[in-house]
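I had to read the description of the data format several times before I understood it. In essence, backbone conformation is discretised, so a fold becomes a row of integers matching the chain in length. I therefore recommend that a typical entry be quoted early in the introduction. For illustration, here is how one protein appears when written out as sequence plus structure tokens.

***
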Amino acid sequence: MENNQSLMARVKSINLQTLVMVGAIIVIAIFFSIATEGDYLTTRNVSNLLRQTAITGILAIGMVFVIVSAEIDLSVGSMMGLLGGVAAILDVWYGWPLPLTIIVTLIAGLLLGAWNGWWVAYRKVPSFIVTLAGMLAFRGILIGMTGGTTVAPTSEEMGIIGQSYLPNSLSWLIGAGCMALFVGWSIRGRKQRQAHELDVKPMSHTLGALVVAALGLLILLYVLNDYRGVPTPVLILASLMVVLGFIAKKTSFGRRVYAVGGNLEASRLSGLNVERIKLSVFALNGLMVAVAALILSSRLSAGSPSAGTIAELDAIAACVIGGTSLAGGVGTVFGAVLGALIMTSLDNGMSMMDVPTYWQYIVKGSILLLAVWMDVASKAKR
């Protein structure tokens, strides 16, 4: 009974946190819309905003698993720059076909992530030190490989990853399919809870949530299609959010990651292979970094020695703002993506207002500090 009550309290806390983040996004949108005389909410800028969010969001998805396991990764910005540089070199200098470039980049990301994880899990070096070393080393390798010059321009085929848009008809079809799956999933979950005699929300609440989700998706697709269509990076982000969110919450691997982050010794005593789990988490994070790197290089049409600078801070901030606890054991993929949207919304709005760069850093740093303080304060009350 106590476990059920604890679970229900946690669910309510997550729902409240989601509502707060959605409210923050709405407030940010209204503020910058007024400040820019409506330019912030034009279909063109909304499309650009979501494309920018895709990179930070994908980095945050991988970072969630690392932080939930009670570790940290400071190397993702430099790793993204390095992997993006590798993709650009293979495309521009060697003329490799796009599928082969993608495969090699993804494998390289997986291996670099596993390298970090091996030092953390099996050599017991603190993740802060391992990934700080990686941040420096990866950036050095990138500068050495490129000779400190930008590798450009990438091929038109490479541009498909980060610059293309879905046809309107296809985006509506995918949207309808996603909504049908969401409805089916909600009904299935409701029936399962009823079968196990667990608390179930009133049917009116479920229907209300489905209606809100459908309207939100409808408005989003209408806005994006009114410009040029759904950007491919946004589709990639949405797909990864669904898949990795399912892995985090509905698979044994996901539950083990939360267990390890929540109580390391108890997990070890219960028979979990903690080292293998942590290695897998860092490898998964490296894979997400590789995906983000491909999108970044495609968007820039180049591989740059400075690409990905301080991107790790944006990813960590997105996770913390999204409710991920730096102490481990708590966090969601969806929350991290919402946190990434908040961070990108601030970046986008301040850039449109020509706010000096130093003020942008001050604002983002203050928000990160506030989010961590709120996390610590909420734990102190428990």
